């Protein structure tokens, strides 16, 4: 049995949960994966038990049946994408995979990472893990917002960032837009294309709507 450690409200583990959901897979219904929720509010990620599994004290973490530990969100998602579901969200051929990789990296390092950096250096809950530098906050938010203009142009006349189907790049951009709300960056005010994209993705993959879908599925 594999073990997947997640925190369902945090951006990085949500990558894995949304990736599976985009393939019609409910992580809690998987026969060969045991999902273990880590409570960041209670600092469970810093416990001795979890630190033995992942000394970096981050999620997601996927422990395979043979004991192999994958403790990076990209590595976890690459594994899940290749093993589960019929269609890859990483790209259908070598060119598309390269395009998805490029878009994903820009979305991650220019948008999501900068919002997360601003959060780490401003939120009281992160003070014990990070030597906070308040001066990092405004420039990080500004850089993320500047990058959003790039995606606003990319999405002109397009539903998705690459090709005609949802890809991992879309998932990462959505999470960046969603996390920006914590820093008072409204995803619906960054351009018409981004607003349309965010609303489309949020309808399927918001924490609230994914929970509703699970309840509806359970009651069927």
TrEMBL record:
Would I find Cell cycle among this entry's keywords?
no
Q: State one molecular function term (GO).
A: transferase activity
Domain GST C-terminal: from-to ranges: 93-220
- Fetch the InterPro entries from UniProt: Glutathione-S-Trfase_C-like, Glutathione-S-Trfase_C_sf, Glutathione_S-Trfase, Glutathione_S-Trfase_N, GST_C, Gtt2-like_N, Thioredoxin-like_sf
Q: Where is the GST N-terminal domain?
A: 1-88
Alphabetical list of Pfam families matching this protein: GST_C, GST_N_2
Q: Which PROSITE patterns match?
A: GST_CTER (PS50405), GST_NTER (PS50404)
State the UniProt keywords alphabetically. Transferase
Q: Keyword Acetylation: yes or no?
A: no
Gene3D superfamilies the UniProt entry points to: 1.20.1050.10, Glutaredoxin
Q: Which PANTHER family match?
A: GLUTATHIONE S-TRANSFERASE GSTA, GLUTATHIONE S-TRANSFERASE-RELATED
Protein name, as recorded: Glutathione S-transferase
Organism field: Psychrobacter immobilis
Q: What does the record give as the organism's lineage? A: Bacteria, Pseudomonadati, Pseudomonadota, Gammaproteobacteria, Moraxellales
């Amino acid at each position: 049995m594999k073990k997947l450690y997640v925190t369902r409200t945090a951006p990085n583990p949500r990558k894995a949960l949304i990736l599976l959901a985009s393939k019609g897979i409910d992580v809690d219904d998987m026969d060969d994966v045991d999902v273990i929720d880590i409570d960041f509010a209670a600092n469970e990620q810093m416990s001795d038990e979890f630190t033995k599994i992942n000394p970096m004290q981050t999620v997601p973490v996927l422990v395979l049946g043979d004991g192999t530990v994958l403790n990076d969100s990209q590595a976890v998602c690459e594994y899940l994408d290749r093993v589960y579901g019929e269609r890859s969200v990483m790209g259908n051929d070598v060119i598309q995979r390269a395009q998805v990789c490029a878009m994903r990296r820009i979305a991650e390092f220019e948008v999501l990472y900068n919002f997360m950096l601003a959060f780490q250096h401003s939120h009281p809950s992160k003070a014990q893990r990070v030597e906070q530098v308040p001066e990092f906050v405004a420039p990080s938010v500004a850089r993320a917002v500047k990058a959003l203009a790039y995606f606003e142009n990319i999405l002109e006349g397009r539903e998705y960032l690459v090709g005609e189907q949802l890809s991992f790049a879309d998932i990462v951009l959505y999470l960046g837009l969603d996390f920006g709300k914590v820093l008072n960056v409204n995803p619906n005010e960054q351009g018409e294309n981004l607003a349309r994209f965010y609303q489309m993705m949020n309808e399927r993959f918001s924490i609230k709507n994914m929970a509703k879908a699970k309840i509806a599925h359970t009651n069927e």
